[in-house]
Predict the 3D structure of the following.
Amino acid sequence: MIDHTQSVSKAFSRKSFVYDEFGENHVNLTRMRERVYAAVNRHIPPNSHLLEINAGTGLDAQNIVRLGHTVHATDLSDGMVEAIQTKIKTAQLDGKLTAERLSFTALDQVQNGPFNAVYSNFGGLNCVQDLRPVTQHLPKILRPGGLAIWVIMPPICPWEISLFLKDWRVATRRLRPNGVVANVEAVQFRTWYFTPKQVMRAFGPQFELLHLEGLSVVTPTADNKTFAPRRPNLFKRLVQLDEAVSHMWPFNRMGDFFILTMKLNS
């Protein structure tokens, strides 16, 4: 476990130098982020105090602060935390955005709580095999009725499955029961994929499901930056279809990610 944690930290420290640049002019990734922010607006009251886990460079935290919330952003990686601190200084977000180097399996040590909600974007939680070491601390750091909005990668991704004839390894990688080895900035570590049912089971009976939706169900995956500018008309039609089906069963359980919103019972 120590080796795995160190590998993840090293990989994303290296990634911190290029992460924001990849998102520039990335039409579909921007659309996906807006979907997540819409979920935050829909479920979390204005002027709330939020905790972000696996916060990356703080790009989401910065945008959610602009929605009117305060955010305490945490990440395991030194490089990512430094990037957050840079954003705090350059965007003059003192008092609105704070940063802490912390693993999401050690949330009992988190500063600045309690929180109205905890959110996690774009699959950082797929870096652990068991989510219970994360969820076990949530009742202690969330206020009564607090929310968790998690964006997690599921086993079924229609876009990747459609590539079966081109590359069967990519098409089936999420279905492997023992996870797959990810390569991030030349550092390898294992990742796992979760169904919504598995995630809800990890939350336990203290939480109830509020909402579930697929994210990028029929549109390209987040790592595909070229499809939208190359085929804008087809991309537009796929977005329309994606928006129509992503809240419906069974599509709300699949995609590049799903957005799961859970509520702590008062």
About this structure: The chain has one domain: 2-264.
